[in-house]
Amino acid sequence: MTDSNGTAPASEKGVPPPQATAILHRTSWKPPVAVSAQGIYVTLDDGRVLVDAVGGTAVACIGNGHPAVQQAIKEQVDKLAYVYNMQLSNEPAEKLAKILIDSGKGAFELCGFFSGGSESMEGAIKLARQYWYERKQPQRKNLISRHLSYHGNTVTILSLSGRPARREPYEDILQHENVHKVSPAYAKRFQRPDESEKQYVERLRQELEDKFLELGPDTVIGFVAETVVGATTGAVAAPKGYFKAMKSVCRKYGALLILDEVMCGMGRMGTTHAWESFGDNEPPDIQAVAKGLGGGYASIGAVLMSKEIADGILDKNGFWKHGHTYMVCPHRGYLVVSGVSDVSTQAHPMSCAAAVAVQKVVQTENLLENGRQTGEYLGSLLRERLQSAGAVAQPFVFDVRGGGSFWAVEFDINSPSVKKVDLKGKQFAIIVQARCMDKGLIVMGMTGGANIKGTEGDHIVFAPAYNITRKEVERIVDIFVEAVEEVLMELF
Ligand code: PLP
After folding, report:
1. ipTM, interface predicted TM-score of the complex
2. In angstroms, rounded to a whole number, what is the distance separating the alpha carbons of residues 164 and 183?
């Protein structure tokens, strides 16, 4: 029940306080309302303009208001907004599928579209399971993922995610029997002092192999990991050789490598796929992408798969037994209708048209190169201003890391070398995020990552648009450093 303004009725005992909004926001705090945006600048209903340094959550990879994308969306809505016919494909979907498949340079054969990251990961897992089912290995029912990971919020995918704060209320309804965890690949926190990088990778490889052996190697569907970890630890790349080593274990026992590039993919690391940005260059068998695919102009994700997986699903006129109203299944030859009557080719034309336009902008404006250069500049400025001798923040900064347009600053507010302060139940990263917002800067403050339980650790993520300028980078760093210094000086 709400009044005419959409306001909830007066608070009763045990009922949340009234809010001036009918949306269930994550907290009872009502966020400011955005009314328009251009590039990385977001205008609020009170006239304030914010600088978005994280593209929402690593989504708005070309910023808001790009005329080429606006035009493509307008043209598409005039031509074809929506069809749902089990025997129809549509032009934008075919184009987008071709762009994605070509981007894999032989790694991928087909793709399927979804509405976002969690759905794409769900699709990836169901695809992997069906692959083994069709290959007459139905005993493969175990998945191995990692602690300190995030793959999304649907029940199955949250089960894979090693992110305790998100899991807690749902723990009893998550899947435990078929989902198993190994250590994260996070050298700065978990590599032992007496261990070389190579030895650390070998320890992680051995742990995965031991897990396979414990479960029974022929019961494992695959190993699931974010190529570069996003939300839980903030732009943490695996040590050199890690994915090669993990893939070798999968190959030894015939299991699949499933990469989650929802956040770190589609150019975020300065290469189209994040796995291309390491020396290893190890493509997965199945991969999910989302955020940067539609750049925020459309709600869209995709699952990409190798020829082996596509063959496994589609051989003998088989079909992927999965789909949603808006986003569904792959066909032989990208999405082309194969003549098999019970296979659908649905992919939302509007979302696909927007994503095609975003990907064209990234290509024609050479934005991966710009993202790499401005990202390096962002990283170097953050290091210079936060970690150099005499910087106010220096004793509190644990790490500045990243690559491409994906960076994070991790603080060590509980370090023994730092005086203990009472944060009054608040998380340091959230205090900094709020102070940045007060000063007109949007960043993403996250907690967890300093221990395997995810109960400690504070980091701030930067994931700006790839077309950001050096001047904008300087402005972001200026505001951020000022906010951090203010908060630290008030606390310590
Ligand atoms: N996978 C990763 C690595 C993510 O970072 C996220 C979201 O942040 C997801 C999956 C879930 O995507 P969505 O929020 O679009 O469902």
Report:
1. 0.99
2. 14
Strand partners, 402: 407
C-beta of 290 in contact with ligand 1 (< 6 A)? yes
State in Å: Cα 154 to ligand 1 middle. Answer: 10
260 lines ligand 1 (CB under 6 A): yes
Sheet of 49-52: strand order equals 34-38, 41-44, 49-52, 441-442
CA-nearest residue for atom 9, ligand 1, is: 152
Tell me the two tokens of residue 4: 């005419």
Around 134, how many Cα atoms within 13 Å sit in the side-chain half-sphere? 20
Full pLDDT tens readout for the chain, 492 residues: 333 333 333 333 444 455 577 777 777 777 899 999 999 999 999 999 999 999 999 999 999 999 999 999 999 999 999 876 556 778 998 899 999 999 999 999 989 899 999 999 999 999 999 999 999 999 999 999 999 999 999 999 999 999 888 899 999 999 999 999 999 999 999 999 999 999 999 999 999 999 999 999 999 999 999 999 998 999 999 999 999 999 999 999 999 999 999 999 999 999 999 999 987 788 999 999 999 999 999 999 999 999 999 989 887 767 788 877 776 554 444 443 333 333 344 578 899 999 999 999 999 999 999 999 999 999 999 999 999 999 999 999 999 999 999 999 999 987 777 788 888 888 999 999 999 999 999 999 998 888 888 888 899 999 999 999 999 999 999 999 999 999 999 998
Q: Is the CB of residue 313 less than 8 Å from the CB of residue 127? A: yes
| φ, ψ for residue 446, nearest 5 deg | -130, 150
